[in-house]
Amino acid sequence: MFGKYRVERDVLDEQRLEEVTQRKSYTDTHPSLTDRLKDSVRCSVPKLKRCVMSSLPVLYWLPKYSVWDYGMPDLVSGISVGIMHLPQGMTCVMAILISLITCYFHSLWIGTFTVLSIMVGSVTERLAPDAAFIINNGTNITTEVDVTARDLYRVQVAAATTVLGGLIQVVLGMVKFGFVGTYLSEPLVHAYTTAASAHAVVAQLKYVFGVSPTRFNGPLSLVYTLGHVCSLLPQTHLPTLVVSAVSMAFLITAKELNSFLSPKLPVPIPVELITIVSATLISSYAHLNSNYTISVVGEIPSGLSSPRAPDINLFQEVIGDAFALAIVGYAISFSLGKTFALKHGYKVDSNQELVALGLSNTVGGFFQCFSVCPSMSRSLIQESTGGKTQMAGLASAVIVLVTILKLGPLFQELPKAVLASIVLVNLKGMFKQCMDIVKLWRSSKIDLVVWLVTLVSTLLFNLDLGLAGSISFALLTVIFRTQMPSYSVLGNVPGTELYVDIETHSQAREIPGITIFHSSATVYFANADLYLEALKEKSGLDISKMIIYKRRQEAKQRRRERRAARRAKRQAKRELADAPVFSVEEEAGHWRNTWGDPDNASLGWMSEFQDGDTTTLGSSSDDTLSRDLERVSLGSLGKWTWDIHSIILDLSTANFIDTVAIKTMRNIFQDFSEIDVDIYMAGCQASVVEQLERGDFFSESITKQCLFASVHDAVLFCLNHRGATSFTRYETSLVCMKFR
């Protein structure tokens, strides 16, 4: 059922591996800054074509557009969204057209967004308050607000904020700031869009109940607004509430019917378009506005504004707000784009989308347009009505243009409650993302916490501060997981070259004399100390205590040797002092007088030698006892103190290594060498080896022969070098590679 393979090769350390693979030098794989600049400015036809196609996506998708497959759904969807976007569409029609040319998103509708509109409105109110436009009425000595002058200045402030925010987005896109989108994980995006949907719902409640709550800005504005709406519920305008209820009931029923019949229909039923047209006709003939004071869209100005340069003197006053507007707009754009991209299976170029959004805002600002981003509610409506491509946005832009120029009066009687009902019903799908809580609870508690923190922070602190807090918290979870990884000792799977955690795999066998230490994360400054402590714990070797004890024993040994040397020196001096002075003749006479018993002198000399030697043997015996005691003491400090001769550090999970980690690794080599334990590293990626080289890790004592291509290579080397005989009785089949 499963295939088998058998490999016979040399054991490869890093030095041998580089020789076999002919590893390129660092300069070959990393061109200099000058070379990169030359390559970036070098122009070629393929490169120019790729640049143009990436900057203008319309050149890519428009030639492939199929009118037969997508024409009718896009047209119906565009009409529905375009009519629904009245009258706000007048403030962003030019931005819509620019986004069609530069944007990749297939399913998103670019337009005004509630939160962005509130942010722009807060800027205009701060820089153009009513108090700055008070004029005196000369007839009755009263004051009043010059509304015309105030509104004209507020339009200038909004246009300047929009243009500056767009320029910031373009610059950020050109410097590849879109990488920030990689930190928007799927749980974060889902929670963020759910919270944004809640903001949109609260913004529509005043139209549903027909009340006029105070507008709040800043943190907790959602709570304050919702609280004020609830306090105004006794003042609910009943005719408006009836219109909202009937509209929502019709929309929900029609959408369910649409879902049931969708397999049999060539295009979805344009429920929203039918609702808007029907509501407009009923309101017009029943005079809902005049008879029941139901709020309607009202007068729609005709004609387009001529382009006008913004007041650059306002830039310094709105730069902070413009930057926040740029970031929030991008976050909403990328979050929604990622959600729809995952659903429909296309990729998102975050940098290009940032540039496209910036160009839309910059050009739109010259036409006094509000800041725009993908609209959540209208994107959902575009999808639910069958929109497939960007052509649906073009159709809606045409509808807005035609309405502005000719058909404005036809939709003046459209009740705002109907538009609010359409938004609420279409946001239902976003709130289904709350079901992620159950799935995340089962799969990942950390992702669940990220989801909840994102939701709560965005609800309480609005989309700008909520986004910053959510990303910061998500990054903290990444740091926490890399700072507190899991550490394990690996054992061999019998008959294979595989090594797994011995605590979680009962059949994994430890290699006698060898400890294979594994970390689930890369080693860097935040976890380097924890890595060293975990190594001591898993190996059972308390290096610091063992080194201190060994040095004490060595000091004691040196003191004993010095005392023994001094005793020997004193003994030699005494023997020299007691020796008699004699001549040849006297010595000859002495030997003649003692000839009869010559062994006495010899035995006496031997006795003296033996006495001296007895002292030497006694000293040797003391040393042996000291070593035995030392072994007992050291053995009590660690479980495998005398069983381990080699430790292999599995660095296969490391994708980088910083200077702090390099210093820690160097200390590990030095400290363990003092207790005669060899350290080896295995599975280092090429980038990690390059960083070790640049960090001056290698030396005469630590060479590339201490690095091995895999854990198995390191194990075979250790067994051949220091422990093969003790291993053969455990698993002889492990040694299956040729060692050289």
From TrEMBL:
The lineage of its organism: Eukaryota, Metazoa, Chordata, Craniata, Vertebrata. Keywords: Membrane, Transmembrane, Transmembrane helix. The keyword Transmembrane helix applies. It holds the Pfam family STAS. The chain crosses the membrane at residues 93-120, 157-179, 451-480. Its main location: membrane. This is Solute carrier family 26 member 6-like. It comes from Sphaeramia orbicularis. The gene is slc26a6l1. The keyword Transmembrane helix applies. It is a multi-pass membrane protein.
